[in-house]
Structures are given as structure tokens and as C-alpha cells.
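# step 3/5: fold
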Amino acid sequence: MHGSVATLCLDLDTSKALKGVVDADAARLRVLLQSCGIAFVEDFSPSGGRHLYVPLRDRLSATEARELVEALALTATSLDPSPHQNITDGCIRVPGSAHKSGGHQTLVTPLAHAYDILRRRNDITALEALRALLAPEITRRRAQKAREAKLVASQRTGNMQPLSLSLATTSEAPLRRIARTGLYDTTRYKSPSEARMAVLNHFSACGWTLAQVQNELAGQFPGLAALYGSANKRDRLLSYEWTKAQAFTATGQKRMPKQTGEKHALINNTSQTLPTGGAIKSSSPAVHQLVNDLENILYAVLDARLQARGREGLSLRLLIRGLLGYMRAKETNILDVGCRTLAAAMGKHHVTIARLLPILAAASDGILTKIADARHKAADVYLIQLPEHYNDLARQLTWRKGRIHAIRPVFRALGDPAALVYEAIERAHHSPTTTDVSRTAGVSRNVVARALADMEALSMVRRDGGQWRTTSLNLRSLAARLGVLEDYQEQIRRNRAERAQWHAYLDRYRVLELVISETDLFDLERDEHWLPPDDAAIWVAA
């Protein structure tokens, strides 16, 4: 039938990644397909590439087949989706075919078994199981296509593009491509060891740990693992090369001399005033207790007030959560965090954050107070405190379990309402019903129902006897599968570039004799910052 597909062809190509990556991708796809009850036929080529054939009992439309293969390509670096991207010219070399480099495609699956698979084929039930397992990748691909269509439409009409946190045309950073595929520019790096060290140096500069790198070798960085050639060589050299990378990046950082004394005089009229008769910095337990008390006031009083502001109120509710999260992470109630840092943490534009902060300060009933204006490179300074008239109420209420968050990366894809819905389930004293979630989150029942359906499809939550519970799914891994971490990295890169331009502009007016610290300058080697897989790192990278 024209325009329909009887067999899904998965082409793992050595032109897209090293052979080690191809073999790792093939192993991953075998496990994935077998977990869905899908039978397949496999062969390999003289060049090291591999093909997996999934015969179908019921034909798929070309569009459905393309969506599935493109979703699988997001899980396997070396998978080339092009055979299913064109209904007229898409083709693949079958077992026994002559190869252009000499030799033939060699069948891996025993011939009798392959014949049986091709005769029986896979039914629609197995295919639906595969779709369910690839739900994050399918969602990600659909979002990418929607962005691309919107970009093309705006170009055709000549309208100005709206501010966006993700760019459809963003190219992949060279070091990221090396870590992912193992392919590198031979004019820049003379050997695999040089390419490995470039990637490891970058990881070290961005604050990664050796354990985090090791965990990702079998995850998002199979190319880095393939550059070692073998597992034995990797186990032998990785720790040694990581030590070298840490030493290299440490020597590249200018160390500031220690302050031998403390200055108490004000430098200018916006300098922070020092408290008298008490500690300059609150103790860690005191800050955490203050955050817990403020959370009680937020849930009991402030949330309801901000809900009345409609869509703006939704952003304000998430902003105050972001400030409390920053306060807990930094263990201070004096916040000098810039708008771009908050914007990266919340998945917003920095202009939006700059507009919302004064509104939140006015609506917070004394919880958030601006105590100093931005000057030169320093951001506005805000004080978060518990007003006296809330002391009794804060003590009477029970602290909630878990931590408060602004917008965790996964909710960049699912939206702000989903973040509040998930929080209402995650931090509830008892497993809530849909009505309870709607009331607690302060979101309409229809919006709650859509958010719950989306999160249930992604296995983030599950319904048990009419009550909702969160699952053990790792939200950071899900965010990576949805592609939102790439949007976050792009925002970090853009923030660093814009900050560098602003600092360069300011430095034009500085006295020439002043020594400019290296930390004030934009480090081009860290332009493409890779956020370590640690929730606390979000406040460092931005």
C-alpha cells in the first residue's frame, strides 16, 4: 500500500558515531524492543554499522512510522532516521546485499528464527507498548516540530519572532558532539586522547564530579566512553585523566587573596547595612527553620492572595517558591541574585522576572523587601523575613514534607500549572484526589485534569483508588529525555554572553589602573556550560 510501512528499519550508522557507540546503541535498542515484546531481525555491515528490522502485522502510515523512528533516534545517537523520512526514496541495505566498501550485510539472527519472525510479525499491542515507553521522546519531537513550524510561519508572514527560551536552529556545541558521538575534528585534536582530555577539562571546569561523569558514560555520553577503545582501558585511564583535568582547570583559575581583616565602613550609599547586636550571618538551622515557616505562610495565606491575580499570579507563586529555594540552597535570607539567574531557574525570560519582582515585593505583605538597588555589576538586593504578625500562625501550622521548588527543568515542557499540580501531590500530607489537587494547587479542575493526564502518560504520577501518588521516576532523567535540559543549557549560554557584553560595556568606564579580575570576564572555554546532574547546581551555573 502506497505511503504505508510494513517493517520498521532502524539504521545504526558509523558515519554518525564511533563503532563503540553503534554497538552500545544496538544493545540498548535490543533491551528496549524486547521489553515491549517486539521481535526483530538484526544484521551488521563490514563498516561496523548495524540494522534492526521490526516487521509489522498491521501496516503503519508513513507519518506514524517516522514519528516512532525519530523518537527512537533520540535514545540512540547513531540511529539514522532518514530511511523513514521520505516515502519515495527511503531505503536500506538488507541482509546479503553487497556493501560499497566490499563484503556483504551479514545476518546476525539465526536464519530459521529470522524467517519465523518475518512470517509471524509483530501485532499492534507490542507497538502500543513501545509508544508508551517512548512517550517522553514522542512529546519532545512533537514540540520540536511545533517550534519549527511556528518559526517557518513567522518567517513567511514577516512577523517578529516572540521571545523564546529555545532556538530551533541552535547548533550542537563541538565538545558536546564529541562526548555524544565520539567523532572529533582531526585538525584540532590529533588523537582520541586529546579529544577525551578536552571534554574532561570542560566537565571539570563546569563543576562535574568523577562519579557524575562515570554515570553518564552509559547514558548521554557514550561517545566519550568509545574514545577509550575498550572498557579495560577506560577503567584504567579515566581516574588518572580526571585528576589531570582537575589540575589543569585549577591552575587556570585566578585565586583571590584571603582577606585578613573585615571592613565595616560603607563603600557607597547602596552598601548593605550591617546588623548590630547579633550575628552577621544567620546559622544554617535558623535559615532552614525560617524557610519552613515561610512555606507555611505561603501555603496558608500568600498563595490564595496571588491566585486572584490570574496568570500573573501563577508566575508570582512560582517566583516566591524560587526565592525560597534559593534561600535554602544558599542558606541566607539576603538575596542578591540577578534576574537572569532566576529566569534560568524558572524557565522564564529575564525581562519577565524583572517585571515580576517589584510586584511580588508589594504583594508579599512584608515577606519580601528590597533593601538595595542594583549598581554596576551587582543585582538588586532583597531581604526575606517573617513579619511579626505571621509568627503565631507559622508556629501553629505543620511543616510539609519535601523541598520547595520553583520550576524543575521537566516542567519547562509540561508548563507552570503542571508544576503546581505535581507539588500538590508530592507535598500533601495524604494522597489527594483530583478535587483535592485542584483546591490545593489553586488551578481549575480542567487544567488539573489535563496536567494529570500528561504526567500519568509520562509515568510521573499514578492513580490508585481515586487518589494520586507520585512515582519513583527520576525527574531529571525525564527532563533529559524531553530535551528541556538543552533549552536550559542554551539559556545559560545566552545569559553568559549577555552578561559578558554588559561587563565589557561597564569596563569601558573604569579607571585604567584598576586590575580586572579574571572572574569578571566571560570565559569562552565555558561558553557552552554543562549543568552537572545535581539539583543544587542550578543556582551556580546560571
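# step 4/5: annotate
Residues 271 and 372 are 7 Å apart (CA to CA).
# step 5/5: archive (pending)
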